[in-house]
Amino acid sequence: MSSITSWNFPTNIKIGSGSLNQISGICKDLKILKPLIVTDKNLQNNAIMQDLKNTIVNSSIPLNIFSKVDPNPTEKNLDDGLKILKNGGFDGIIAFGGGSALDLGKLLGFMVAQKLTVWEFEDVGDNWKKANTNNILPTIAIPTTAGTGSEVGRAGVLTDHLNKVKKVIFHPKMLPKNVICDPNLTLNLPKNLTAGTGMDAFAHCLEAYCSPGHHPMADGIALVGMKLVKENLIEAYINGQNIEARQNMLSAALMGATAFQKGLGAIHALSHPIGAVYNTHHGTTNAIVMKKVIDFNKSHIIDKIEKLAIFLEIENGFKGFIDYIEDLCKNLNIPKNLSEIGVNEDKLELIASMAIIDPTASGNPKELDFNNTLNLLKECL
Amino acid sequence: MSSITSWNFPTNIKIGSGSLNQISGICKDLKILKPLIVTDKNLQNNAIMQDLKNTIVNSSIPLNIFSKVDPNPTEKNLDDGLKILKNGGFDGIIAFGGGSALDLGKLLGFMVAQKLTVWEFEDVGDNWKKANTNNILPTIAIPTTAGTGSEVGRAGVLTDHLNKVKKVIFHPKMLPKNVICDPNLTLNLPKNLTAGTGMDAFAHCLEAYCSPGHHPMADGIALVGMKLVKENLIEAYINGQNIEARQNMLSAALMGATAFQKGLGAIHALSHPIGAVYNTHHGTTNAIVMKKVIDFNKSHIIDKIEKLAIFLEIENGFKGFIDYIEDLCKNLNIPKNLSEIGVNEDKLELIASMAIIDPTASGNPKELDFNNTLNLLKECL
C-alpha cells in the first residue's frame, strides 16, 4: 500500500498516513484563505487536535476554531456557528472529527448561503431544490473515526431540540469538496469506539448490499467494503496502532457511506429509534441487532448472502455468515443483546412504531409491519 | 430491475428504459435553456437521432444540432463547434453518441471558457490547473454505445492532425453534470460494435482490477462490472433487442470507466499504438490481445485472477479464466489474432516502442520493456 493515494469519486479523497499535511495545498486549490475549523467539543484537548493545529499553523493558514459541537449537534450549535461564520469573513470550512463535527461543518457551509431556516431543507421530496446554491462555502472533511462516512455524504443530521427529533438535512452541495483520510488520526480511538464505528461501517455495506434497489456500483463497493472490515476490524481493535488496519477501516467507512445511497434496512430502522429513546451508541446498536435482522430477512436474501459468504471466504453459506457475525461481535465485546444496553420490554411497542416509519425501513428486503417488527425487537432483547 | 434508477456517483446518472424523456427536467435543473446538441456525423440519419429530436421538440427545448464530429475528433471539429457555440448564445451541451461525440461535447463545454489553446490542457502534470473554471458549460452525456464510458470520464481524446497523435485533454470539470443511460438507444447497435465496445468495458474493468494501485472502491466496481459483462454481453450480442442485457452493458461500461482511474495496463498500452498505426477498432483490439496479456502478467496477478474466477463462478482458477476469455471472444466472433485485423511483423518494433511509453503502460502489473513488449506482440500475431 503506497503511502498516500488520491481517489476522485464520490468526491476528491486523499488517503494515507501523513495526508493531513496536504491540507494547505487543498485550501489553495479551493481558494480558501481563511477557513473555519469545526470540531467536536470533546476533541478540543485531544492530541490529534494539536496535530491539526500544528499543521495549520505550519501552513500559514490562520487558526480559527469553532468547537461548540455537541455529540448530537443541535440548532443551537448551528446558530452559534453561523454567527461566527458570517461575522468572520470565512471562505471555507475544515470539518474535523467524528460524524457530529463533519455533519455540523457541512451544515454550516451550506446554511451560510440560505435565507430559509434549516428545517426547510429536511430530506423530504424536493426540498433541496429550494436552496440558494450561490455562496455555499466549500468544506474539507477530515474524519477522526472510521464509521459514519459522513465525509462522503450529502446530508447532515441535526437535532430539533424543541421537538426532540433528529432530522436529516440534504443538499447535493453539502458533499465535501475534499476529504482527507489520515489513519494517524484514528490510532488512539478507544477500543469500544473502534468496535462500534467499525460495525457501523459493516452495517452500511451489508444493508446496502442486501437492499433490493438496482445499483451495481454500490453493490461492488459494499462487497469490497465488507471484505476490508473482515480483514481489518479485529486487528484495529486489538492493535490500535496498526496504521494499515486503521487506514483500511477508514476506506471501509467511506465505502459504506458511498454504497448506502442504494438503500439501508431494518438494522438502521431499529437502531435509529433505539438510539433516540435510550441514547445508545449507533454503531454498537447496529451490531447488536444485525444477526437477528439478517435471519429475519432470510427468505429474501439467502442467495445474496450465500454469494457474499463465498466472496468473504466464509464457509457454510447463510448459516456460516450468521455464525461469522456472532463471532465478530463476540471478539469485539459487543453487548449480546438489547437488554445489556438498557432496552427493556416497556418501550418496545413505541420503538416498533417508530421503526416502521423510519426512512430506512423502506429499503429493507422484507416489508416491515408493526407486528413483525415488534417480534424482531423481542428476539433482540 | 425497476424501470429508471438514479445514481449519484461518480456523477448524476439516470439509467433505465425511457430515461431519455427526463432530459427536459435535467435541462431545467441545470438551468439550461438553449443547449447545443453535439453528435456523431454517422448518427445524423439514424433512427435514435430522430428519437432524440422528438424528445427535444416535445420538451419545447430549441433544437440545435452540431454533428461535424469525426470518428476520431480533431482540432478542426473542435474549432467548428466552438464558433457555433460562441455565436449562438448556448448555455449547455447535450453530448449524444459514442465516445467521439461524448468527448467532443465535453471538450466544447470546457474550451468555450478558455483563452489558452486546447493542447495546453493535455493531461500532463498539473496542466489542468491553468484552466479558467468560470463559464464552463454544463454537459449532459447520453451514450449510444456501451463501452468507452466517456460519459463518466473527466477527459476527452482529441487528434492533433498536424502531428498525427491523439492527445488526452483533462479537467475535472469536463465530467458531465448528468448522464442519461437509456438502453433503447443501444438496441440496434450492430453486432460487431456490440462485441467490440462490450469487450472494451470488460478490458477497463479487468485492467483496473489487476492494476497494482490502492483503490478498493475501484476494485469493487470492476468486479461487479465484469460480472455484468459475463452475464449480459453474449445475450446482448445474440439478441440485441433484450433491453435488460443492453442496460446491464451500459452499467458495465460506465463502471469500467469509473474503475479505470485506478489504472489500466498492457491491453491498452498495446491497443493504443495498434489503433494509431492500423486504425483498428479499439475494443476489438483490446479483446484480441487480452488473453496473452493476462498470461504475460501471470506471476504478478495469479492470486487476484483466482479470486476473480471464484467471484465470476468460473472453474479451474487462472487457467479457467484464460479459457473463459478465449470462449467469450470466440462466441463474439472476435478475430483470433492481430494478423486477422491486418497487423504484420513489419511494424511490431514501432508498436512496441510506442506501447512502452503509452500513459497506460505504467499501470501494468509487470513492468513493460521493449523486449518483453515485442515478444508479447509476436505472441498476439
Q: How would you describe what is shown here?
A:
Two copies of one chain form a homodimer. Chain A has 13 helices and nine strands. By secondary structure, chain A is of the alpha/beta class. In chain A, helix 2 links the parallel strand 3 (35-39) and strand 4 (65-66). The longest helix of chain A is centred in the middle third of the chain and has 23 residues, at 216-238. Chain A is globular. The A-B interface holds A 1-2, 5, 7-10, 29, 129, 154, 172, 213-225, 228, 248, 251, 255, 258, 261, 310-311 and B 1-2, 5, 7-10, 29, 129, 154, 172, 213-225, 228, 248, 251, 255, 258, 261, 310-311.
Uncertain spans of chain A, ≥5 residues at pLDDT below 50?
Answer: none
CATH class of the largest domain in chain A: Mainly Alpha
Number of domains of chain A: 2
Most extensive interface: A-B, 32 and 32 residues
Element pattern of chain A in H and E: EEHEHEHEHEEEEHHHHHHHHH
Largest sheet of chain A: 7 strands, mixed
Return the average pLDDT of chain A rounded to an integer.
95
How are strands sequenced across the largest beta sheet of chain A?
1-2-9-6-5-3-4
Q: CATH topology of the largest domain in chain A, what is it called?
A: Dehydroquinate synthase-like, alpha domain
